[in-house]
Design a protein that fits this description.
Elements: H1 3-38, H2 40-44, H3 50-82, H4 84-103, H5 108-111, H6 114-143, H7 150-176, H8 180-185, H9 190-207, H10 213-221, H11 228-235, H12 237-246, H13 248-267, H14 273-301, H15 303-326, H16 330-356, H17 364-380, H18 383-393, H19 399-426, H20 429-432
Helix pairs in contact: 1-3, 1-4, 1-6, 1-7, 1-9, 1-13, 3-4, 3-6, 3-17, 3-18, 4-6, 4-9, 6-7, 6-17, 7-14, 7-16, 12-17, 12-19, 13-14, 13-16, 13-17, 13-18, 13-19, 14-15, 14-16, 15-16, 15-19, 18-19
């Protein structure tokens, strides 16, 4: 077998493994968000009224995001010094253990205040694992195999998000069909327990992989950086800041649609839990089908130009999305979030490959992990919480939430533009070709 054929085979296996593992991780993460919106309140916060319990559930949801930058630094350090493959096996194991433990965690009625405390700790452990997962999966997919198509390699990782969302929403929709008491008592636990099987599948695919070619070549040329985070902040801090802003909508949008919209529609608009979960499932399928097409378009037009264009389209569709969702009619809700998804996930599909090429190989794992996960803490974890607060301040009207969403889009477009300019200024061929 020729070197090119070997590289192509390695690249295919790496992309598949990155997709499968990331889909499992996002399944675990999404079922927590869904459960926070429709189940955790009465189980872990029964002494609060409905609105306060929902806010407490979303605050617990944020705990996972607080731990993500820590995971990004720790696993980024290990990944830049020891390699991508073994680090990704560790993140998948940690995520699986934490998710399964949530599924067997007793509620407030059984162990009192220890229940929400343990829930927060397990959620933080989930966040710690995801903090190292995304960046490593992106590099495994973009650094393996033949070079020249980082956007397409990164897209496989981004496909893990809708795939995990589809699986999580499908399983949650099935258990949500249980009678109210059964779902609240034990039904919501089933998706968490099923994660054990998915983790085994993810581990099998990752243990068979080879280390990424670019990392191997980098180690052959020079010893690993002793302290990647220090090197990163000393010499590449401007790129880190720009990457944080460039990631804003990519992180916020998913939870805005899958978590906030679910709570808003079921609590404010009177849409049944089952119907809304089915709508979100259809929307996740749409995202999964659209992202590969969007990536091919970005390869033709240029990543930064395509991303800014799709962000502009997302902004233009923001108010129509809320108007359609506010009708409370399932078909119009799906139309609203579907149009917004087509626009916004075009940008999201390209984001991973765009960020991966913005940092040198020696600090790349730390660079994309720290920037992306810092953004997840500041923006992703607060999105459903702030959206719920703006909704309450507006007396249940969506206007304040729409303004918040538009600001998020504007910040993201600015970050993409600045990061693209910084990378082009470096005149690094492997970077400028894709950015």
């Amino acid at each position: 077998m020729s070197d090119d054929e070997t590289a192509a085979r390695q690249g295919r296996r790496a992309r598949i493994a990155a997709f499968v593992g990331t889909a499992v991780e996002w399944y675990d993460f999404y079922i927590f968000g869904t459960a926070a919106a429709i189940a955790f309140g009465p189980v872990f916060f029964p002494t609060f009224d409905t609105s306060t319990a929902l806010l407490a559930s979303f605050a617990t949801f944020w705990a996972g995001f607080l731990a993500r930058p820590i995971g990004g630094i720790v696993f980024g350090h290990l990944g830049d010094r020891l390699g991508r493959k073994n680090t990704l096996v560790a993140t998948l194991l940690i995520m699986g253990v934490a998710t399964f433990a949530i599924g067997v965690l007793p509620g407030y009625a059984t162990i009192g205040v220890a229940a929400p405390i343990l829930l927060v700790l397990l959620r933080a452990l989930q966040g710690f694992a995801v903090g190292g997962e995304w960046g490593g999966a992106v590099l495994l997919a973009t650094e393996s195999g033949a070079s020249g198509r980082p956007l397409r390699g990164g897209m496989f990782v981004q496909q893990g998000s809708p795939a995990g969302n589809i699986l999580a929403t499908l399983v949650m929709a099935l258990v949500a069909a249980l009678p109210g008491d059964a779902f609240a008592t034990w039904g919501w636990r089933i998706p968490f327990l099923l994660s054990a099987l998915l983790v085994v599948i993810g581990l099998v695919t990752r243990l068979k992989l080879e280390e990424s070619r670019e990392f191997t070549q980098r180690v052959e040329q020079a010893p690993p950086v002793k302290l990647p985070i220090a090197e990163l902040l000393a010499h590449h801090w401007r790129r880190v800041v720009a990457a944080v802003f460039a990631s804003a909508l990519g992180i916020g949008m998913a939870y805005f649609l899958s978590t906030f919209m679910l709570a808003y529609a079921t609590s404010q608009l009177g849409v049944s839990r089952q119907v809304m979960l089915n709508l979100l499932l259809a929307n996740a399928v749409l995202q999964f089908l659209w992202q590969p097409v969007a990536t091919r378009l970005a390869e033709r037009l240029g990543a930064a130009r395509f991303m800014v264009g799709t962000l502009a389209a997302t902004a233009a569709l923001a108010v129509p999305m809320f108007l359609l969702a506010g009708t409370g009619k399932p078909a119009l809700i799906l139309l609203g979030i579907g149009l917004s998804t087509i626009a916004g996930t075009g940008y999201y599909a390209v984001l991973a490959g765009f960020l991966a090429q913005a940092f040198p190989v020696g600090v790349r794992y730390t660079g994309i992990s720290f920037a992306y996960q810092l953004c997840s803490t500041v923006i992703g974890g607060t999105t459903p919480l702030l959206a719920q607060l703006f909704l309450g301040l507006g007396g249940g009207h969506w206007a304040g939430v729409a303004v918040f969403y538009l600001v998020l889009i504007g910040v993201t477009a600015a970050g993409v533009t600045v990061l693209s300019a910084l990378v082009r200024r470096s005149a690094t061929p492997t970077v400028t070709a894709s950015v």
